[in-house]
Design goal:
Helices cover about 75% and strands about 0% of the residues. By secondary structure, the protein is mostly helical.
């Protein structure tokens, strides 16, 4: 039995009709598709990036890209897989961009760390370098492994 829930891998007749209408330029049909997939898409992206602001941006970008390429969507394939595939690619691009733009913590943070933990400057720098390496290694993982 088919239902209208986005968790189902097979598209329902009503979902196919919404997609067909959206492909023909019906903005309200695409709005209904967005409403249907907003929460599951948000949960997926948040698991991959772990930040609400970034998640909001990526979900919005995913819907924009889905709208742009909706006419090329193959109606014989599950829509959810196609949409989530776009989201996973957007997450990977976001993580790569974020890794390239790595911002160094403020020196004040290092001073506070030293005072709190009564460490020497060298220990604080060593701890900073270790954190940087761990974050760098995590950012190099594929999105599916990073989500785990």
């Amino acid at each position: 039995m088919k239902t209208d829930r986005p968790e189902d891998t097979l598209m329902s007749t009503s979902e196919r009709e919404l997609i067909r209408r959206a492909q023909q330029g019906d903005h309200s049909a695409f709005g209904q598709i967005m409403a249907r997939y907003q929460k599951p898409l948000y949960r997926l992206v948040y698991r991959l990036v772990g930040n609400h602001d970034d998640t909001d941006d990526i979900v919005q970008d995913t819907f924009v890209r889905a709208y742009q390429y909706l006419r090329s969507f193959d109606n014989e394939r599950p829509f959810q897989h196609w949409l989530f595939g776009i989201a996973v690619k957007r997450c990977a691009t976001h993580q790569q961009r974020r890794a390239r733009m790595h911002v160094e913590p403020l020196e004040a943070e290092h001073m506070a760390l030293m005072e709190e933990n009564n460490r020497s400057w060298e220990d604080a720098l060593a701890a900073k370098e270790l954190r940087r390496r761990v974050h760098e290694a995590i950012n190099q993982l594929p999105p599916q492994q990073r989500a785990a």
